[in-house]
Please model this.
Amino acid sequence: THGAHMTQRIAVIPGDGIGTEVMPEGLRVLEAAATRFGLDLDFESFDWGCGHYLREGRMMPADWKERIGGHDAILFGAVGAPDRVPDHIAIWDSIITIRREFDQYVNLRPARLMPGVPSPLANRRPGDIDFLVVRENTEGEYSSLGGRMFPGTEREFVIQESVFTRTGVDRVLRFAFELAARRPGRHLTAATKSNGISITMPYWDERLQAIAGEYPEVAWDKFHIDILCAHLVQHPDRFDVIVASNLFGDILSDLDPACTGTIGIAPSANLNPERRYPSLFEPVHGSAPDIAGRGIANPVGQIWSAALMLQHLGRDVSVWQDAADAVLRAIEAVLAEGPRTPDMGGTARTADMGRAIASHVAQAR
Ligand code: ATP
Ligand code: MG
Model:
């Protein structure tokens, strides 16, 4: 019953800095897609971020969860104003809190070499690099379990535990296998480090082996994180879907945009695949105070994140997937032929690039 005409309610949080400059372009392109493909998108905007913090003493209101918990998705810009609000408050009390409270246990980052974007890797062309990183987003190495003993003495020692649960590991592995099963390559690579991390990583490998049994149609392999990083630089064309724990996924998902060009174009999704809570879509870049207020930020990371949102909202309904594809084609066309913002060597402004992408979407066939 989930057709094109079901209204999807989007909570829009532009945030700070260039977040407020790239978000209007994301919305412009979504509106073009909604008109062209007959999608019913209902946007509601929330001015949460460092401005809110400076006025009210918190990044989001106390009832933030009720305010956006019933929406179908969250489109997020970026938060941070390092000269006025400490980064740990800006980030933790907004985006990290939303990810945790809405159990967005998958962080999905596509890495695709786009036309017109030079890669630092020699001899790589568009199409050579096209893979997805699935990062576990809630547990693993990023726990706050641990502490410091005998501080300030010669006997001082420090412990921080990693926590891997059967539920947490299995659900992210299943998500990754499902994703791989639906792609033409049907291949999954897992990051591990069971030769050095001798308790948790062998467990991760064991669950990988077990879950792989449920997906005989997916070919899979695994690499230690160190050699995997080397392979990604030397043979990025070999990868399709990569699944990794919180820490290893963090490392990989910063390596990818480095291999595929400017940080200004990289998108991400924080998913609660069961849809018990809204999922969140945001560009990989931050609020970029160094260029904020000048209207020159690259809007593609935000627009591509909006395309990921359409894919997610549409489930398997083809018109939503068509809309998402049209946005991606439009991004590719504009990256290839311009206009381009200064980070890509052009002279265009944020809105020029957004308008050009929206007009390609409006004419999509
Ligand atoms: P965070 O702390 O969240 O990483 P940040 O503002 O410190 O945020 P980024 O936003 O990731 O760091 O920016 C890193 C560099 O990349 C900055 O020099 C910034 O100007 C540039 N940059 C980031 N996003 C864009 C964009 N959309 N267009 C052009 N340049 C960008
Ligand atoms: Mg930064």
Q: What stands out?
A: The first helix runs from residue 19 to 37. The mean pLDDT is 94.
